[in-house]
Design goal:
CATH topology of the largest domain: Rossmann fold
Helix content: 25-40%
Shape: elongated
CATH class of the largest domain: Alpha Beta
Bound molecules: glyoxylic acid
Strand content: 15-25%
Largest sheet: 7 strands, parallel
Radius of gyration: 21 Å
Structural class: alpha/beta
CATH architecture of the largest domain: 3-Layer(aba) Sandwich
Distance between the termini: 27 Å
């Protein structure tokens, strides 16, 4: 029996994972996909993005343990085997994303970019917030991460609303669900925080028409996946003022090409898909736990619903 680890810059260093897994499951061999391994020995694959063909020949595969919160990268392999797939649901990761999003909202709401410009010219002058308080922050997607981020912003007194595909009990936020409710939700979201999973349904979701539903001013904050939005439509909306600003941790494509106009826009901030990196120290318990569950024939935790793609 062997655990195969597929390295990816987004999910933490392979040596950190090797150590974390050796501490928890010392008797199970751990191989990197860059090492030589026997496909028939592989029973568990830890993976964020699967190259097509990765799983071919793994006849004894028992489960795929995604090393990230989002599993869209696994579906890059059209022959994803029919075994249970679990993802990471890690409070540490969600808290880091809450911190990143708070910074992004405050960057615009407290006008830190403008204050930085004033500082360069030694100008001491208080500026008005871009909209009257409290800021209205709307979440597209409100799962384990969204609700943690929403709670963090709610603690500052911000007005938090959420839109989800289907109905769920979501105490403490104004909740909208279904496509009919989308225009009403968007119309109130001065700060639109995108935390939707990337699926066949959500690819290109934030297009020109939907960005056009946002109020004035509106700021886009995307820390989900770049492909959930249409890049040219974001650029056009920023250029014509439809969007007052954007804070993007994810882009389409990644890395963002050097000649993208987004790099040099004054009202855009870019970070390189780092808002919530997987931390093997905090994530390995659930991965090891799921391996033990699988070996005992128990149901895994944090299983994805393959038919939904997340
Ligand atoms: C990172 O993007 C993740 O899905 O964990």
């Amino acid at each position: 029996m062997t655990i195969l680890f597929v390295s990816d810059p987004i999910v933490g260093g392979e040596e950190g994972w090797r150590k974390a897994m050796a501490e928890r499951l010392p008797d199970i061999p751990f191989k990197l996909s860059t090492e030589i391994y026997d496909k028939e020995e592989i029973e568990f694959v830890l993976c964020f993005r699967a190259q097509p063909g990765l799983f071919a020949g793994m006849r004894n595969l028992k489960a795929i343990l995604a090393t990230g919160a989002g599993v869209d990268g696994l579906f890059l392999d059209p022959d994803l085997p029919d075994v249970p797939i679990a993802r990471i649901v890690d409070p540490w990761m969600a808290d880091q994303m809450a911190a990143w999003t708070t910074y992004a909202v405050l960057h615009f709401f407290r006008r830190f970019g403008d204050y930085h410009k004033q500082q360069i010219s030694a100008e001491w002058r208080e500026l008005e917030p871009p909209q009257s308080a409290p800021p209205r922050v709307g979440f597209l997607g409100y799962g384990a991460i969204g609700s943690t981020v929403g709670k963090a912003l709610g603690n500052f007194g911000f007005e938090v609303s959420a839109w989800t595909r289907g109905y769920r009990e979501l105490p403490g936020v104004s909740h909208y669900h279904g496509m009919e409710a989308l225009p009403e939700f968007m119309a109130k979201a001065n700060f639109l925080v995108c935390l939707m999973p990337l699926t066949l349904e959500t690819k290109g979701f934030l297009n020109k028409e939907r960005l056009g539903l946002l109020p004035n001013p509106a700021y886009l904050i995307n820390l989900a996946r770049g492909q959930v939005a249409v890049t040219e439509d974001i650029i056009a909306a920023l250029q014509c003022g439809r969007l007052a600003g954007a804070f993007l941790d994810v882009t389409d494509p990644e890395p963002l090409p050097a000649d993208s106009p987004l790099w040099s826009m004054d009202n855009v901030r870019i970070t390189p898909h780092c808002s919530g990196p997987t931390n093997p120290e905090t994530a390995a318990d659930q991965v090891a736990g799921n391996i033990l569950r699988s070996l005992k024939g128990d149901r895994l935790e944090n299983l994805i619903r393959r038919e939904l793609g997340y």
